[in-house]
Amino acid sequence: MSALIEADGLGVSLGGQSVLRDVSLSVAPGEIVTVVGPNGSGKSTLVRCLIGGLPAGTGAVRRAVGLRLGYVPQRLAVAATLPMTVARFLSLPRRASRADVATALERTGADGLQRRQMDDLSGGQRQRVALARALLNQPDLLVLDEPTTGLDQPGAADFYRLIERLRDDTGCAVLMVSHDLHVVMAASDRVICLNGHVCCEGRPAQVAEAPAYRALFGTGTGGALALYRHEHDHAHHDHDHGTAA
Fold first, then answer.
1. Which of 3, 38, 105, 173 could be stapled to 110 by a disulfide with Cβ–Cβ 3.0 to 4.6 Å?
2. The predicted structure's pLDDT at residue 222
């Protein structure tokens, strides 16, 4: 099956500094791909190139004809001085029907928030609302840029399970950039380690054993790649956080 989106030999320089070099990756329909890397590794630059917000310096980005993207940014930029309800936020930039808004919020576990002010939401609620807005586009591909930043471990685990459920329910593919070097969604079909270039990639269990991964990220958990799994409950998160699957 052809890729929904792919980068081929992508290179980007910003301010005269090379940020990405010779990066190639692809996301197939229905696939969950997680990109991990240290700060400054080019993760957000890669996302911006893939969604068309930044031109490639070298190489190319190809998107399937008619590809519908849903994008969840790292942080929602909603000015505190501008009162806005959740329902209003979900109708920007394209007006959405009340029924569609309600359905999207229900799917992301944020039902009942329509009348709440965006500024009054918790971090987890804001991310679920951002995800609901992305779903209104009925995306073939969900792109999430460090969506669990600021969430505690149980909150991050819940969000990962939500993404997995949405993939199963809608069939959309997922490209997620993770800020946590040691914890990725167990449902990831592939993990890509980025540090200006692709250091290694493969199934989560393969990457956990890869010398390139351990050389980059081998602190904190002794080099182990922890995976959030369904059987984890909140009482076990702290205990299991540093274990490899």
1. 105
2. 45
